[in-house]
Amino acid sequence: MDRIGDDMMFEEILSRLPPKVVSQFKCVCKQWCYELSTPKFALIHTRRLSNLLQKKLLSFDEHTIVVDDIVSGNLEVDTRKVITFPYDVQPSRLIIIASFNGLMLLCIRRTDANELVLWNPTTRRFKLISDDYFSRYFGRHDDTGGMYFDEHNDLKVLHINCFAGAVTARVYSRHNDAWRNLSFLKGCRLGSNFYSWSAGIYSGKTIYFTASNYWIPPGECNIVAFDVVSESFSILRFPERIQVNPCQVHFITISNKLHGIVVRYSDELIAELVKYEDDDWITVFPFSNARIVQQVEPHQRTNIIQENKWLITSIWGDTVEVLLSNESLNYIQHVDSFNGPKGALFLETIISPFR
User: Fold this and answer.
1) Are 133 and 170 in contact (CB under 8 A)?
2) What is the CA radius of gyration of the chain?
3) Are 274 and 282 a contacting pair, CB within 8 Å?
4) CATH number, domain at 185?
5) In total, how many domains does the chain have?
6) Three-state secondary structure readout of the chain
7) What digits encode the pLDDT tens for the residues 238-249?
């Protein structure tokens, strides 16, 4: 090892191994345990894995937490695995707020209080990050958030809450183990209970949300962008051609670029994939034969490819099925991430919820 050098050993060789193998190598000696447990190694290891087309899909049903293998966007048959949550809580009471670099941000909804949890499903390590602010009811359409690393590699958790017409934004620091308030957009009406907020999606040092008005006027869709460097908010707009009432948008990233699945109701149900590029939205391609699926079978998973079909879950709860051509199939297999309340893609990493 002296001839190879420590940096070469850990950063170029061991960083390419699967998480479970890395965990086994921690038992070699104290030095290896220390080096393989540093935040620096965890980030290098995660960046290596992020280039792979293999992901994991974590999803909840009424009684179980299921992990499936996703390779090139496709569900791998017979890989389903049931895992347990650190707490004795029904999966039906769990909501996924964000998925980022192998960590899940979850809310445990309880009758007396709510708890936010940072959880690594691979290593099973978790950390409660709640305080008395979260003692009241947690609403799927009113609470959202995301995760990111700052310039000092400190893991940050963003939480957005809408209550009594106001939007409150706070950020948690893993390093300081504390919350602090952020300034939101002044004069903004997105805290009204007329609006439904989506889960956040991270792309290019920005976390994106949709805030849709599903009452009056129906279908108004706003994009809220949070710059993780300046920790400031801004509003983006969809082009007028997409603003058809009602309209639903679900964000995903493909090849690390922000995309949106747009579902519109005009004379017929229309679904298309759009891409955010050079401060504009361009249509990648429309989907054919889009239809609302009234009942999803227990074995089906949303936002993955099965038999050349794609099930899309909107923020309003509709499940839309689209047929994929060879062109769209090849494009979508590079999906990096999506977040939904009951399912999200994640990487198997060794990122720790703790400092």
Assistant:
1) yes
2) 20
3) yes
4) 2.120.10
5) 1
6) CCCCCHHHHHHHHHHHCCHHHHHHHCCCCHHHHHHCCCHHHHHHHHHHHHCCCEEEEEEECCCCEEEEEEECCEECCCCCEEECCCCCCCHHHEEEEEEECCEEEEEEECCCCEEEEEECCCCCCEEECCCHHHHCCCCCCCEEEEEEECCCCCEEEEEEEEECEEEEEEEEECCCCEEEEECCCCCCCCECCCEEECCCEEECCEEEEEEEECCCCCCEEEEEEEECCCCEEEEECCCCCCCCCCEEEEEEEECCEEEEEEEEECCCEEEEEEEEECCEEEEEEECEEEEECCCCCCCCCCCCEECCEEEEECCCCCEEEEECCHHHHHHHCCEEECEECCEEEECCCCCCCCC
7) 776 665 556 677
Torsion, Cα of 58, 39, 174, 204 (10° steps) = -70
Q: Is residue 26 part of a domain?
A: no
Which residues form the domain of 325? 38-346
- pLDDT, one tens digit per residue, over 157-189 is 999 988 888 899 999 999 999 999 999 998 788
Tell me if the bond preceding 217 is cis, omega within 30° of 0.
yes
CB neighbours of residue 43 within 10 Å: 16
Q: What is the pTM of this model?
A: 0.87
CB atoms within 10 A of CB 154: 14
Give the CA count within 13 Å in the CB-facing half-sphere of 289.
8
Q: What are the residues facing 311 on neighbouring strands? A: 321
Q: Is residue 3 assigned to a domain?
A: no
Token pair of 310 as six digits: 């794609």
Residues present in the chain in total: 355
